[in-house]
Specification:
By secondary structure, this protein is of the alpha/beta class. It contains twelve helices and 23 strands. The strands form six sheets. It has an eight-stranded parallel β-barrel with strand order 16-17-18-19-20-21-22-23, surrounded by four helices. Strands 8, 9, 11, 12 and 13 form a five-stranded antiparallel sheet that branches. Helix 3 links the parallel strand 17 and strand 18. Helix 7 packs parallel to helix 8 and helix 8 runs parallel beside helix 10. The longest helix has 18 residues. The N and C termini lie far apart (149 Å).
């Protein structure tokens, strides 16, 4: 074959090879050879004339930017242009394509926390507190309880912190507890088992002495900045430091002052708990307080209705807002109730029978109320009724200490009202009043039975006699006040709750009360107990 023929065949071969290496269309619409980055720099090629020598050149392409967040890749390639020395035709090929990428981010899978350590169970009266050390990574804990060692256990709660208070226990029963930690990955194994036996406080062999003829009193504790009655080591003292025990009367409506005040003075009650029925009338409350002080009686101010447009009864009310409204009313009244005489002799009963039974809501709401009243300037004793219509033992036994310890003045009297719960409260050994007396000794607060009624088959009647309640309170060293000197509320035939025949009127004495025609049978039973009532020693 001659030179021209060979040249023609070479041109045809080169043309065929060039067609096979034509650019491809990439997914993003750009063109380029397979394996070459879309944004690579094109390489210029020269077409030599026939007969020139073969020339090759290599140019790297640009590197693409990674687009994934955890794995990125880059592609590099080189292109080679070859020129035939015999034909002068050129062809472009791609060689050396490579890929590189960063390693993906590795995230450790979550694991359950370790079992809690240092678990402890501390028993109290009708309560067990379980505590433990924080487990790293725990989001919550599971507290389980059984009544036999090693289970079976029943889940009680899933607190987020390292403690839990079990208030659903019965005294003298041993309980067994385990705790596990939990997070999104699961639960730990159970902790080591702990146990505790709740017990009632031991009643003192003899109640604290709360009446005295001594003229040398105890010193007011430094934390109490008041000028009047104060609580110290479970005893209520007057401003002279002489023990004072409440032995008083309830009056339903202080607007009957002109008749009832003289009658209660003749009865020799040393304290009067009163309110202005339904409507909060500050002027009448102040006038009544000063009248009782003049009669050498401690005025105990309270309210029975929510202050505001609803005028709902506070008894059995569990609304924290309602209690806050009452506290606000007392705070707004401080200027009128802060006279030297009132602050020396008065007791402020915050709200009649407010609050739920056996509840931390009762505790927390009253801690807030006490704080607010102290900030407003009240230093006198604050009286707090237990929840559950004033008849719940649980609030007092489980939560009174927390409220008392939150008071910077440590000047609180806690009360219970005994109606259809009276028989249960006075039964058992120790009975409820003895348990409260023991708490006075161990925790320093004061308790009193501030309402009870006659043993009659009427609404909310006390299911034991008034004499039984008074004797039990006296035996435990607790104060008391009977309901009521006058009682216009129920309007029952014969009204067994009212002690006087004519509303509030009495001109006799405790010595003659047992047969007085001015008193009902209920009044004849109660008034003789006032014969030994000791008054405050600091009246003018």
């Amino acid at each position: 074959m001659n030179l021209i023929g060979r040249w023609v065949i070479g041109v045809l071969l080169l043309a065929t090879l060039a067609a096979c290496q034509s650019p491809e269309t990439n997914p993003d619409g750009s063109t380029g050879s397979s394996g070459v980055a879309a944004n690579s720099t094109p390489v210029a090629t020269a077409t030599p004339t026939p007969g020139t020598t073969s020339v090759s050149s290599t140019t790297p392409t640009a590197t693409t930017r990674p687009t994934a967040t955890t794995t990125s890749t880059s592609t590099t390639a080189s292109t080679t242009t070859t020129t035939s020395a015999s034909t002068g035709a050129s062809a472009t090929t791609t060689t050396g394509a490579s890929t590189s990428g960063s390693s993906p981010t590795i995230v450790d899978a979550p694991v359950p926390p370790a079992a809690p350590e240092n678990v402890a169970a501390t028993a109290g009266n009708r309560v067990v507190t379980i505590s433990w050390s924080v487990s790293a990574g725990a989001q919550s804990y599971n507290v389980q309880r059984g009544t036999v060692s090693s289970g079976p256990y029943t889940k009680l709660a899933a607190p987020t912190g390292p403690s839990y208070t079990d208030s659903t226990v019965t005294n003298s029963t041993r309980y067994y507890y385990v705790v596990s930690a939990a997070n999104a990955a699961g639960h730990s194994a159970d902790s080591a088992e702990v146990s505790a036996t709740p017990t009632a406080p031991t009643a003192p062999s003899s109640p604290p002495t709360k009446t005295s003829t001594s003229t040398v009193g105890v010193s007011r504790p430094s934390y109490n900045t008041g000028t009047g009655l104060f609580v110290f080591n479970g005893v209520l003292y007057d401003s002279s430091g002489i023990p004072f025990v409440i032995q008083g009367l309830n009056i339903d409506d202080a607007t009957s002052l002109s008749v009832s005040a003289a009658g209660m003075a003749a009865a020799n009650a040393n304290a009067v708990r009163y309110n202005v029925y339904q409507v909060f009338n500050l002027s009448t409350m102040v006038t009544a307080a000063n009248t009782y002080i003049n009669n050498q009686q401690v005025p105990i101010l309270t309210v029975q209705n929510v202050v505001g447009p609803s005028d709902d009864k506070l008894s059995g009310d569990a609304s924290v807002t309602d209690l806050q409204n009452v506290v606000t009313q007392w705070n707004n009244s401080f200027a009128s109730l802060s006279t030297a005489s009132l602050q020396k002799h008065m007791i402020l009963n915050i709200a009649n029978e407010w609050g739920p039974a056996g509840s931390t809501t009762w505790r927390d709401a009253y801690i807030a109320a006490v704080t607010s009243l102290r900030n407003a300037g009240y230093t006198c004793p604050l009286m707090i009724d237990t929840g559950g219509y004033g008849q719940d033992a649980g609030d007092l036994l489980n939560y009174a200490a927390a409220v008392f310890n939150a008071d910077p003045q440590k000047n609180i009297i806690f009360t219970i009202h005994l109606y259809n719960s009276a028989a249960g409260a006075l039964g058992g050994s120790p009975n409820l009043l003895q348990q409260l007396a023991a708490l006075s000794v161990s925790d320093g607060m004061v308790f009193a039975v501030m309402e009870f009624g006659p043993a009659e088959s009427v609404q909310n009647a006390t299911n034991v006699t008034a004499a039984q309640v008074i004797n039990a309170a006296n035996a435990s060293g607790l104060g008391w006040a009977a309901w009521g000197w006058d009682d216009p509320v129920y309007a029952l035939p014969g009204d067994p709750y009212q002690m006087t025949v004519t509303q509030g009127y009495f001109t006799g004495s405790p010595a003659t009360a047992g047969s007085s025609s001015q008193l009902t049978a209920y009044g004849q039973q109660v008034v003789p107990f006032f014969a030994t009532s000791a008054k405050e020693t600091d009246f003018p």
